[in-house]
Amino acid sequence: MLTVSGLTKAFNRGSVNEVAALSGIDLTVETGEFVTVIGSNGAGKSSLLAAVAGNFPPDRGTIAIDGRDVTAWPAHRRAHLVGRVFQDPLKGTCAGLTIEENLALASRRGACRGFGPGVGSADRTRFRQLLAPLGLGLEDRLRDPVGLLSGGQRQALTLLMASLVPPRVLLLDEHTAALDPKTAGQILALTGDVVTAGRLTTLMVTHNMNQALRLGNRLIMMHQGRIILDLCGEEKAKLSVEDLLARFYALKGEELASDKMLLT
Amino acid sequence: MLSWYAFNGALEQGFVYGLTALGVYLTFRVLDFPDLTVDGSLPLGAAVSTVAITAGWPPALSILAAAAAGFCAGAVTGLLNTRLHILHLLASILTMIALYSVNIRIMGRPNLTLLGKPTVLDAITGLNLSYFGAPLFFGIIALVAGAALVWFLSTAFGQAMRAAGDNPTMITAQGVDTRTMIVLGVGLSNALVAAGGGLVAQNQGAADVNMGVGTIVAGLASVIIGETVLGKGGVLRGVAAALVGSVLYRLAIALALSFKLGSFALTPSDLKLVTALLVVAALVAPQLKTRMRRR
User: Which helix (H) or strand (E) holds B206?
Assistant: First the structure.
């Protein structure tokens, strides 16, 4: 379970470039809940995920994972609780290390790393079994450097790595945005499988309203560092893209009306 | 051409400085941390080893002491960078400069001789190997150190260290503090270099505070020349390239010194220029290769 309360963060505080990324976010995600997060550019979606992952300390507010207050913990200390997949497919894996070495690194997420062999033969067997269902042929390329893989293959691998040690919270930050539509579809299907199989508590940021509606059992919309819409269960299931757009415009209210006037 | 004697000498030098090349490989290639501390930690190792032997320590133990001192020097650079947020290059230059004073303090003077004192080479003097002895002895040491480094980098811990150099975002998300890895990695690199410095001092029979000048360039030249010959990719290949490169570098230097054209000959003071040209040539070679292929 993830509990965020009163989370506030401004970047470049005190300068002319001050941006309020998060303005008092309150959010409780129950265990096993799969939340999709949408919103326009600069709405604070990625900042929310980065704050949960521990990339920066918030100005105000607290973050608790499974009841433990992790607000003051640096990112590496939270890693045993948090699994991450980034927008950039190059971010989640090490190009110079082999597929099996990357998986081995992920299999020790948040654990002590000693001086035993990095990859053992038992690991190899396990990794092959894990990779085979992807249908990408990676199970026969364990010793290839990850730098040889395509963006889609690397993203699939990152997803697998993020869930190798089941995380208490899985953070997916527009993880299909950099991929071509076909590959994006495959990664999205894989996301659904991984989350369902592990019953993972998940936050997924996306720009794609279709994705946001199709996946997950709860949807939140962010705008200017706030959550402006929060739908779950039946309400979310019945929603269409048109409904969503209509509610988006309605909630954004006046500011948007003036934008519209500017545009027309 | 190169005399048999000069060839042997180059081989010996290549292996003695092999540890330095391994250290440079660890920082430049594995950690992606350009570390100039080595110019100070090589004489540091030499100073510690020489002083320890003078105080009656066994020569082999003095090498371990040198490595420990080198580790501390590297850790200082790592801490300056990770905790005080000083640019890595500058942090290493600061440590290097500071070590100059430290090294003179350790020796009590700018240089110290080992004349008549025991050295690690005493182990093979009884074996009657004539002038093969030293290259063979230091070759074995370099190979053992190289093998140890390959082993270390393949352990779970070593993998995390490589990942910290390759992709800090990724390894942080896997629960590793990259700052710790940099401090330990740069420390380990300088431990190798300082151990190399101890060997150099025992081999040439003296430690000198200025003996470290150009260590980084020589080490980098070794790594790059080795990569040009053996190619890139993988820890085993990288470590082998550093050692092969170290020997090739010393051979190239010996070859340059034996070069005569009429009354013109290169002198030892020309070596820095030769080294710089060598590094440029080794850096450009891969580019030329791809350009040729494109045509």
Answer: strand B206-208
The answer to whether the CB of A75 falls within 8 A of the CB of A55 is yes
Give the separation between CA B76 and CA B82, rounded to whole angstroms.
10
pLDDT the model gives residue B38: 97
Mutation test of the interface with chain A: which of B174, B179, B181, B232, choosing the one with the most A Cβ atoms within 10 A? B174
B 215-234 residues with CB below 8 A of A?
A: 233
Q: Among candidates A99, A175, A131, A55, which has minimal Cα distance to B173?
A: A55
B258 touches A: beta carbon within 8 Å: no
CATH of residue A22's domain is 3.40.50.300
pLDDT of residue A264: 42
Nearest to A145 among B173, B177, B233 (CB): B233
Taking only residues 162 to 191 of chain B, the set having a beta carbon closer than 8 angstroms to any beta carbon of chain A reads 162-163, 166-167, 169-178
* Amino acid symbol at B131: Y
Asked if residue A48 is part of any domain, the answer here is yes
Q: A172 lies in a domain?
A: yes
- Of A10, A9, A2, A21, whose CA–CA distance to A69 is shortest? A2
Interface contact flag, A97 B159, Cβ < 8 Å: yes
- Within-domain flag for A198: yes
What number of other Cβ atoms are within 10 A of residue A239's Cβ? 16
Phi, psi of A87, rounded to the nearest 5 degrees: -65, -45
* C-alpha span between A91 and B44 (Å, rounded): 39
Among chain A, residues having any CB pair with chain B shorter than 8 Å are 53, 74-77, 79-80, 82-84, 86, 90-97, 101, 104-106, 108-111, 113-119, 145
- Please give the residue range of the domain that contains residue A53: 2-110+117-237
Count up the domains in chain A and report the number.
1
Cα separation of B158 and B174, whole Å? 14
- Show pLDDT as tens, one digit a residue, over chain B (295 residues): 678 888 888 999 999 999 999 999 999 999 999 999 999 999 999 999 999 999 999 999 999 999 999 999 999 999 999 999 999 999 999 999 999 999 999 999 999 999 889 998 887 877 766 677 889 999 999 999 999 999 999 999 999 999 999 999 999 999 999 999 999 999 999 999 999 999 999 999 999 999 999 899 999 999 999 998 898 888 999 999 999 999 999 999 888 888 788 788 888 888 888 888 888 887 787 788 778 777 6
DSSP label at B108?
A: S
**What ipTM is given for this predicted complex?**
0.89
- Report how far apart the first and last C-alpha atoms of chain B are (Å, whole number): 35
What residues of B are in contact with residue A149 (Cβ under 8 Å)?
none
Indicate whether A32 belongs to any domain. Answer: yes
